[in-house]
């Protein structure tokens, strides 16, 4: 992977040195200075392979650090800015991080990298990269304790090759990066893939706050300023974009040709609303353990209600309803555990129809009611999340055998509206009770989409419940 990507960067630096590669606000780094930056880091990061952390809220600085560490053959570990202090401390200890780019914390040393704008121009071609770079992606899953996923060059190379064929990146593309650089999906498809094509990556630092319920104005401004051709969003962010475009009576940028959405189940109603506004949304599916992307809808073969066709090079089968993946994108293994060989059982349920994958939810999240009904909670939750004021929801079975749902809300909602959102569900899948929690509650929303399910039982004891089947209309803040 490093050979191909960095050879491309070197080529772009020779042929189009003044073309923008990375942009954030008024800061712009062209391909020439980007290559010079990489050359300078070769002096700073030379020596034995190290495990180096990346801890910065600035996505452009995080991208530069990721590129530098990969170019120089080190092991990069992002410390997600949305993780708690305890989770970040766990990452530092588990990965044996001694040096961190961007911040000094918990006794680690700070690694200082040069500013690309201050690096002298190259007077010779960029040297080939040092091979063997790896990355450890920490994912909190549903337990709250981050697990380290080991991703090597071969996994990155296979994922990028598959996405290259599915997305067909172009030199004239402008990718609007809205997801945190700590997420593997944005590293693969939002940084390395555009640079391979010689495209421009535009960052929006304020999008992290928007992911957790913050103001959308900076995101809308970045979209207008960059005129992007591609972007990646999670369902909650897509819902808010739809709401903003509707409120402003504006259409989506005509420049957009593809907006991938994933991370959680997306309701068909939300996808349809986005398409009506001119947002070319294409749902996909993946997980860090398989280098982030397994399947993706493409413009010429997209099917609503599916997550698209499996990427080239990825092998997938369904075993007793469970999605099983094999091939070169499957991770090396979890940090501190035995290497993975052969297939990877994803824990996700699904089926294939006419070559398109349909994901039905997590196997271990399946709810079996006292009446013997099987309910995938994401099915119910996606109905609520079609409303942009509900960025996430969590369905669970209460101790009395009744279905309850916790709705994360960003604005007041009345119960009649909630019942309307759930009206198309069969009676057995409709929750009997509802609890509201504000989106501002720390640690509840996951940036990749969805709610932290480890919090549901605790929240149920703290929040008042509301009967969804009475006739009294209530307004809840």
What does this structure look like?
This protein is an alpha/beta fold and 477 residues long. The protein has two domains: 359 residues, ANL, N-terminal domain (Rossmann fold); 111 residues, ANL, C-terminal domain (GMP Synthetase, Chain A, domain 3, 2-Layer Sandwich), CATH 3.30.300. It has 13 helices and 28 strands. The chain has a nine-stranded mixed beta sheet, sandwiched between helices. A seven-stranded mixed beta sheet has the order 6-5-3-4-7-8-18, with helices on both faces. Strands 16-17-19-20 form a four-stranded antiparallel beta sheet. Strand 19 and strand 20 form a beta hairpin. Helix 1 packs across helix 2, helix 1 crosses helix 6 and helix 5 crosses helix 6.
Descriptive tags:
alpha/beta; Rossmann fold; GMP Synthetase, Chain A, domain 3; 477 residues
In short:
The chain is α/β, with parallel strands linked by helices. The chain contains 13 helices and 28 strands.
How much is the average pLDDT? 91
The helix count comes to: 13
β-strand percent reads: 15-25%
- Tell me what the CATH architecture of the largest domain is: 3-Layer(aba) Sandwich
| CATH class designation of the largest domain | Alpha Beta
Describe the secondary-structure layout:
Elements: H1 2-15, E1 20-24, E2 27-30, H2 31-44, E3 51-54, H3 59-71, E4 75-78, H4 85-94, E5 99-101, E6 109-111, E7 134-139, E8 147-151, H5 153-167, E9 174-177, H6 184-197, E10 200-203, H7 207-211, H8 217-226, E11 230-233, H9 235-248, E12 258-261, H10 268-276, E13 281-285, E14 295-296, E15 309-310, E16 315-319, E17 322-326, E18 333-334, E19 344-353, E20 356-362, E21 367-368, E22 374-375, H11 377-384, E23 392-397, E24 403-409, E25 413-414, H12 415-421, E26 433-438, H13 456-462, E27 466-467, E28 475-476
Parallel strand pairs: 1-10, 3-4, 3-5, 4-7, 5-6, 9-10, 9-11, 11-12, 12-13, 24-26
Antiparallel strand pairs: 1-2, 7-8, 8-18, 13-14, 14-15, 16-17, 17-19, 19-20, 21-22, 23-24, 25-28, 26-27
Helix pairs in contact: 1-2, 1-6, 5-6
């Amino acid at each position: 992977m490093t050979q191909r990507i960095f050879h491309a960067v070197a080529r772009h630096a020779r042929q189009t040195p003044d073309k923008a590669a990375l942009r954030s606000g008024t800061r712009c780094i062209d391909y020439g200075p980007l290559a010079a930056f990489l050359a300078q880091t070769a002096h700073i990061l030379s020596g034995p392979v190290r495990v180096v952390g990346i801890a910065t809220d600035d996505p452009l600085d995080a991208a530069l650090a990721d590129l530098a560490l990969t170019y120089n053959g080190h092991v990069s570990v992002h410390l997600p800015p949305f993780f708690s202090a305890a989770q970040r401390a766990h990452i530092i200890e588990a990965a044996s991080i001694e040096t961190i780019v961007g911040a000094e914390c918990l006794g680690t040393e700070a690694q200082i990298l040069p500013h690309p704008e201050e690096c002298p121009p190259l007077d010779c071609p960029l040297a080939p990269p040092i091979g063997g770079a790896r990355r450890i992606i920490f994912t909190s899953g549903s337990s709250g304790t981050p697990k380290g996923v080991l991703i090597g060059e071969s996994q990155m190379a296979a994922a990028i090759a598959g996405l290259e064929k599915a997305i067909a990146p172009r030199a004239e593309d402008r990718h609007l990066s809205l997801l945190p650089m700590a997420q593997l999906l944005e590293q693969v498809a939002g940084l390395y893939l555009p640079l391979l094509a010689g495209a421009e990556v535009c960052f929006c630092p304020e999008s992290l706050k928007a992911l957790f319920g913050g103001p959308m104005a900076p995101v809308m401004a970045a979209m207008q300023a960059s005129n992007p051709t591609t972007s990646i969003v999670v369902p909650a962010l897509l819902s808010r974009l739809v709401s903003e475009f509707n409120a402003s009576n504006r259409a989506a940028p005509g420049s957009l040709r593809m907006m991938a959405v994933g991370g959680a189940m997306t309701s068909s109603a939300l996808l349809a609303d986005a398409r009506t506004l001119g947002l070319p949304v294409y749902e996909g599916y993946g997980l860090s353990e398989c280098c982030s992307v397994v399947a993706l809808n493409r413009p010429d073969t997209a099917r609503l209600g599916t997550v698209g066709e499996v990427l080239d090079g990825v092998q997938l089968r369904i075993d007793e309803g469970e999605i099983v993946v094999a091939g070169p994108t499957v991770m090396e293994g979890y940090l501190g555990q035995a290497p993975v060989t052969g297939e990877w059982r994803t824990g996700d349920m699904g089926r294939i129809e006419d070559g398109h994958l349909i994901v039905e939810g997590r196997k271990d999240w399946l709810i079996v009611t006292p009446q013997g009904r099987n309910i995938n909670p994401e099915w119910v939750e996606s109905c609520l999340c079609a409303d942009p004021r509900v960025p996430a929801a969590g369905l669970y079975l209460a101790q009395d055998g009744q279905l309850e749902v916790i709705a994360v809300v960003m604005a007041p909602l009345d119960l009649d509206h909630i019942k309307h959102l759930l009206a198309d569900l069969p009676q057995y899948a409709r929750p009997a009770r509802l609890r509201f929690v504000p989106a501002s509650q720390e640690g509840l929303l996951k940036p990749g989409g969805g709610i932290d399910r480890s919090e549901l039982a605790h929240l149920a004891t703290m929040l008042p419940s509301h009967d969804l089947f009475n006739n009294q209309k209530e307004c809840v803040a």
